[in-house]
Amino acid sequence: MRTAAEPVDDPFTAHRRLLFGTAYQLLGSVADAEDVLQDAWLAWNKADRSGVANARAYLVRTVTNLALNRLTSARATRESYVGPWLPEPLLTEPDRAAEEAEAAESVSTAMLVVLETLSPVERAVFVLREVFGFSYAEIAGFVDRPEPSVRQVAHRAREHVRTRRTRFDDDPERRRALTERFMAAASGGDINAVMELLAPDVTAWTDGGGKVTAARRPLHGPDHVARWLLGTLAKPVTAGVTLEAATVNGELAVIAALGGEPIGVVTFDLLDDRVQNLRFQVNPDKLTGLRRA
């Protein structure tokens, strides 16, 4: 959102989508990314711009370093997090939040989970190079490291991601068909229909952050996952919940809403027409990126 004092032709406005995308993919959090942008905007307005030859590079460097500082402190906080930690989801359909990240080529939830296993600097180098296509020389300036060192970090990060990132089916029609079947089975409370959609080795993670009821350990197997899901939907507190398909982090997902407000989202990986992994984000503090304007 542009502030009243922010001119339309200001470089910060022109590059805002890039800056938001950089912060979001480094932090996996919409709220933290917005905080970083606010801090970057304040720094930009205090800066002596007479010596800024490339505003885009200057702003990306500012956002990168602010995000790295926040990511380092966030790692310590996540060590005491209640239950599994999952990234904060972001709608990537035309809406308020997605407009800010439309040009940022938002990565999938599965990819954000993999990025969590990188060190802060590895994550920054990987995102800046592989997602946004900055040169090694530019990245070296952003992270204050020699270019040869950045190349080594980039190679190490790519190998790390490659070995941990499983390739899943990405056919949009198959995904849409399975999503519709999943919503129908879950809404109807049909445990057998739900189980038929799940892979034999399916795993589910639920992030409630200690704010709402959620499984504090991963759930394994179709029976366990299906019973937990339908048991949750059958509770009085979720009476009247509706399920809606929506594009979240670039992939079709299922949003659970109550009274028109999102109370959770299910993202999943699809392999051989079965759900391989499910990620339930139900922490109310992490749902701001799902709310439409």
UniProtKB/TrEMBL annotation:
The cross-references to Pfam families, in alphabetical order and at most eight, read: Sigma70_r2, Sigma70_r4_2, SnoaL_2
Query: Could you tell me which PANTHER family the record lists for this protein?
Result: ECF RNA POLYMERASE SIGMA FACTOR SIGJ (PTHR30173:SF36), SIGMA 19 FACTOR (PTHR30173)
Please give the superkingdom of this protein's source. Answer: Bacteria
All copies of domain RNA polymerase sigma-70 region, residue ranges:
12-75
Q: Which residues form the RNA polymerase sigma factor 70 region 4 type domain?
A: 111-160
Looking up InterPro entries in the UniProt record yields: ECF_Sigma-70_Domain, NTF2-like_dom_sf, RNA_pol_sigma-70_dom, RNA_pol_sigma-70_ECF, RNA_pol_sigma70_r2, RNA_pol_sigma70_r4_t2, RNA_pol_sigma_r2, RNA_pol_sigma_r3/r4-like
The Gene Ontology biological process terms listed for this entry are: DNA-templated transcription initiation
Q: Which residues form the SnoaL-like domain?
A: 180-255
Q: How does it assemble?
A: Interacts transiently with the RNA polymerase catalytic core formed by RpoA, RpoB, RpoC and RpoZ (2 alpha, 1 beta, 1 beta' and 1 omega subunit) to form the RNA polymerase holoenzyme that can initiate transcription.
State the UniProt keywords alphabetically. Answer: Sigma factor, Transcription, Transcription regulation
Name recorded for this polypeptide: RNA polymerase sigma-70 factor
Q: Which GO terms describe its molecular function?
A: DNA binding; sigma factor activity
Record family assignment: Belongs to the sigma-70 factor family. ECF subfamily.
- NCBIfam families according to UniProt: PRK09636.1, sigma70-ECF, SigX4
